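#help-structures
NK: newbie question, is this the right format to request a structure? protein is OmpA family protein
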Amino acid sequence: MSLNTEEKIGLSAGLVFAALAIGAGLLSTKLLPSLNSKPAAVASASAATEQFVLGDLHMVLADGKVTITGRVADEASKNRILKPARLLWGPDHIVDQITVDATAPAFWWAARPIEIFARLKQLSAFDLKLADTGIHFSGVAGNAKLAEGIKLGASNWFKPGSAVTGNVTVTDDAQLAVWNDGVLLNESIEFATGSADVSANSHERLKEIATFLVEDGRVVRIVGHTDNTGDAAANKTLSLQRAESVRMILIQNGVKGTQLIAVGMGQEQPIADNNTETGRQKNRRIELAN
């Protein structure tokens, strides 16, 4: 097999962990909660009534940090907010100001926090406030399509049909634009040059992702991708080998093998411009998708 440019420079493959679409038919951004998706259960009382409740929560992304304030009924409820937030933005970028108060309203949302936060992570800044009076949301998106999808989604993620105040500003910036409707995580997973061996530097992050998959239980496809440099057939083979390597590490860290399906797509599905190095780097990735 001849090595393409990505192997010669020591590929740092992007790991894109794609979530179950929160729904269909919303400008193809899939931002609405699915009719079959599991609600974000927090309290058994809410589960019994299946009545969606907004709760008391305020999230602000500014200067690269997400500050989360509000009140929740117990530690379990707090963890249901903090765990996915820390997985997506990183623990060093989360400022926890959540208070545990037994009298606080339990939140019961139409979509899971991990799926909602993944949509919010596509914004460069946002301010989300949930209260019994309604939802206030503002943010900055990289294109009009994403902005419209976020606005429509905000009225359905938590309590479907809720009125939302605020506005999403559009900043035409390719770096802020959504490149994959189902993105959940976008990681830099390193491989040894010209091989499918995952670098030891990436094992710790894969452990964190494995912990999420063990708790979440969803079945995902691990899909390998390359840029268009070199031989197409060789790229497809390498992409599958790397997907299989990631699958094995996740299994070694407790994920059931039945949850993971490895697929190699090679250069067939680019998400960025292969004519630039930045674009080629984005295209060299592994996706975990439903």
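mod (FA): yep, format's fine, and the tokens are attached above. Residues 122 and 178 are 6 Å apart (CA to CA).
NK: thank you!
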